[in-house]
Amino acid sequence: MGRGVITALFATLLTSGVVAEPSQLNLRRGVTDISAQVYDLHMTIFYICVVIGIVVFGAMLYAMVFHRKSRGVKPANFHESVRVEVAWTVVPFIILIGMAIPAASTLIDMEDASQADVTVLVTGSQWKWHYKYMDRDVEYYSVLATQPEQIANKFNKGENYLLEVDRPLVIPTDKKVRFLVTSDDVIHSWWVPDFAVKKDANPGFINEAWAKVNEPGIYRGQCAELCGKDHGFMPVVVIAKEPADYEAWITEQEGIQRKAKEEEQKLLAMNMEMDELMEVGARVYQSACAACHMPNGEGLPGVFPALKGSAIATGEMTKHIDVVVNGVSGTAMQAFGKQLSLKELAAVITYERNAWGNNTGDTVQAKDVNALMTGK
Amino acid sequence: MSNAAEHLHHDEHHDHKPAGIMRWLNTTNHKDIGTLYLWFAFIMFLIGGAMAMVIRAELFQPGLQLVDPNFFNQMTTVHGLIMVFGAVMPAFTGLANWMVPLMIGAPDMALPRMNNWSFWILPFAFLILLSSLFLEGGGPNFGWTFYAPLSTTYSNDSTALFVFSVHIMGASSIMGAINVIVTIFNMRAPGMTWMKMPLFVWTWLITAFLLIAVMPVLAGAVTMVLTDKFFGTSFFDAAGGGDPVLFQHIFWFFGHPEVYIMILPAFGIISQIVPTFSRKPLFGYASMVYATASIALLSFIVWAHHMFTTGMPVAAELFFMFATMLISVPTGVKVFNWVATMWRGAISFEIPMLFALAFIVLFTIGGFSGLMLAITPVDFQYHDTYFVVAHFHYVLVTGAIFSIMAAVYYWLPKWCGKMYDETLAKWHFWCSLISVNLLFFPMHFVGLAGMPRRIPDYALQFADFNKWISIGGFAFGLSQLIFLALLIKASRKQGEPATDQVWEGAQGLEWEIPSPAPYHTFETPPMVK
């Protein structure tokens, strides 16, 4: 009966004013045993609050209606009662203990990341995620796939606007997957609501979390900790596949990444033409550099330096390669050496040296970049 | 008491005050300084509110329309800083300046010259902060919580101005707090024993101790940010042996007591207003005092509940969860006491009471979401979403700010000698009440559905609610212009004359002096029975 009333009340609360699907109003139950427990804890504490609210606000409303001066009532003069005061201290305390026990038990389960079947290193950086499978030779960056024109309201927005990435993380279902979470620059927070996993990525430290997903599917989340300008534009997308499908996928990826490395070695022996470098470079620049240095190379004055006409982009070539490959410590300039391939690095540096009127005429080749990286 | 009143009336004939601007620059009078603080807070409230309007305009629909993300981040940061340090805290200090001496029968604050100084450095602090927005690269954009290393290695050079302005705000708050403590300890009228002090005085005394305890911690935190950024230290840089999470521990060791600094005086105000309009003494006076003190003490051992996702040991998470849940007990006692005060009273619904009733209900809703946030496993889902934004705006806007508005309506007739404009006041209350809930209630829903805070653009599923939230925001902002009109009328001394007691059920020394309160009061201390 009581439960029915509360459910009815909650239902009215939800449907009042705006008609929307439940998923837009409440926490999701999620797809792991832990996320279901979290959801149940959430609903329990919510119902406790609703009941206390009904009692307290009910008493208040009663007094406001029946103890009004305009009804001609005479005020009573009582102002203390030890019995009542002890009661409303002790009863909430007991309710809290009742709530604390299941919460503590869920929490202890959540923090036990031992005996994982698969381990993924998740590294945040401004403003993308990097995934590295610790027991396989696979690693890659995952960046926002929504077109800038959608954000600028020039194109229609797609169904998964701001919640889509170029390369989602892929994990197996029914296996305990451990996430090691860290950061290359500022603090980020890796969050997948359907797993009830939100863990801060702290530079210089590694945090642990885990999930055992029950259903295959695509699960979307976002960075949850303010991490600078494009904090709102670094989503998390995870695809959970059946273990056999996962195995097939990761084996294929290993093959692709091995082949790419071999290709890279071949590149060292050849020279690319300016046109090709500029074409590849423009594409790489848009995805890796434009967030800070802006598509027009002018940067954000006072925040991110301009490349157009800059001393580095028009000066000595090795210095320029060094900055792009190794970053600049103590600033927001990241080390792109491990993020981009030799070809991409060569192309983007060529692009920066020749775009926006920088016209140095230089071409940078993969072997130039490799020479700097290997110290030759 | 009639003696005292006559005597005071006599004083009125020879209050000497310089005319014009010099009166306000040089004043050491607690009433003048209180007025300065209150107007300053109101101006800051409008400026911080204008920034909130920018935020809500950008979030009115998905996509980037009006501002770029970097400026959006500056708006969320400076909005937070201004509302916390420029609006809520100075407003409470203004109320303390005006009312504490009148409530304890003191002629003025104990340290009047320091009082002048503690106010007049504030405008410079905010001038520095606001002017940084116009520099190349803009002002602070790392959130009002300025987490390192976003605020150190990755911030721009205007961070130095931010640090300096926070230092000045802190110095001002510490001086104000010292003044309150010294006044209450030394200048109570004969017979005004500790357990006879009005609750507003009690809550401010405890708040002042919290301020003295934690404002230096904030000063330490900003100084470490300054040296990390400009002088090569590595307090918060792992590469140099520091720890970015250390910053959060230090910040929240300040930040959590700070939350109570912004709500304890509100508890005091509500505990003055509810008995007056219920025509019945406050229920459980002693337990109110003890509950306030326990909340203040507990506030020092719950700070890490702001940091559950940073990766603490599970034992620490359990400790901070239990300690945080415990705070709901004394807070509950307060709410129960207010309802018991109303119970079998003879209630009337003047504007201060309407704001106080709205406070009780809406602050309690904020308390409920606070209790939900205390449950660590669920906090992992709520943390850094709009659910948190909803929570702290319920306790700070419909909590702290509603209590300040209640206090202004309650004491304005005593300050000006004229009743406020009843029609404008009703419009102000009802427009604020409806719009504030349209503004903040749906934030619970978008937060639970997964919308992170501090983002300038959002996924399409959040679009409908954000539109309503923005409409509520604009309406709430406009409603405050009604309040501005009302305050201008009141300061021009327009309106019905107020009696000395003003409200039928009002009790206490401040209601025994004439309305408007003379420039000098209680030069001869009253006797409290």
From TrEMBL, chain A:
Record field: transmembrane: 44-65, 86-108
GO biological process annotation, one example: ATP synthesis coupled electron transport
Keywords: Copper, Electron transport, Heme, Iron, Membrane, Metal-binding, Respiratory chain, Translocase, Transmembrane, Transmembrane helix, Transport
Cofactor(s) essential for the protein: Cu cation
Entry EC number(s): 7.1.1.9
Domain Cytochrome oxidase subunit II copper A binding as annotated: residue spans: 115-252
UniProt-recorded Gene Ontology molecular function terms: copper ion binding; cytochrome-c oxidase activity; heme binding; oxidoreductase activity
Gene3D superfamilies: 1.10.287.90, Cupredoxins - blue copper proteins, Cytochrome c-like domain
Domain Cytochrome c span(s) in chain numbering: 276-356
Reactions the enzyme catalyzes: 4 Fe(II)-[cytochrome c] + O2 + 8 H(+)(in) = 4 Fe(III)-[cytochrome c] + 2 H2O + 4 H(+)(out)
Subcellular location(s) per record: Cell membrane; Membrane
Annotated Cytochrome oxidase subunit II transmembrane region profile domain residues: 19-114
GO cellular component: plasma membrane
Record text on cofactor binding: Binds a copper A center.
Pfam families attached to this UniProt entry: COX2 (PF00116), COX2_TM (PF02790), Cytochrome_CBB3 (PF13442)
Similarity comment: Belongs to the cytochrome c oxidase subunit 2 family.
Job description of the protein: Subunits I and II form the functional core of the enzyme complex. Electrons originating in cytochrome c are transferred via heme a and Cu(A) to the binuclear center formed by heme a3 and Cu(B).
Identification of the protein by name: Cytochrome c oxidase subunit 2
Organism: Bowmanella dokdonensis
Gene, per the UniProt record: coxB
Automatic annotation (TrEMBL), chain B:
Keyword Endoplasmic reticulum applies: no
Membrane topology reported for the UniProt record: Multi-pass membrane protein
Domain Cytochrome oxidase subunit I profile: from-to ranges: 24-529
GO molecular function: cytochrome-c oxidase activity; heme binding; metal ion binding
Alphabetical list of Pfam families matching this protein: COX1 (PF00115)
Subcellular location: Cell membrane; Membrane
Regions that span the bilayer: 36-57, 77-96, 117-135, 160-187, 199-226, 246-270, 282-306, 318-339, 351-375, 387-412, 424-448, 468-488
Enzyme class per UniProt: translocase
InterPro entries assigned to the protein according to its UniProt record, in alphabetical order: Cyt_c_oxase-like_su1_dom (IPR023616), Cyt_c_oxase-like_su1_sf (IPR036927), Cyt_C_Oxase_1 (IPR000883), Cyt_c_Oxase_su1_BS (IPR023615), Cyt_c_oxase_su1_dom (IPR033944), Cyt_c_oxidase_su1_bac (IPR014241)
Predominant location category: membrane
Record function comment: Cytochrome c oxidase is the component of the respiratory chain that catalyzes the reduction of oxygen to water. Subunits 1-3 form the functional core of the enzyme complex. CO I is the catalytic subunit of the enzyme. Electrons originating in cytochrome c are transferred via the copper A center of subunit 2 and heme A of subunit 1 to the bimetallic center formed by heme A3 and copper B.
Protein known as: Cytochrome c oxidase subunit 1
Lineage, broadest ranks: Bacteria, Pseudomonadati, Pseudomonadota, Gammaproteobacteria, Alteromonadales
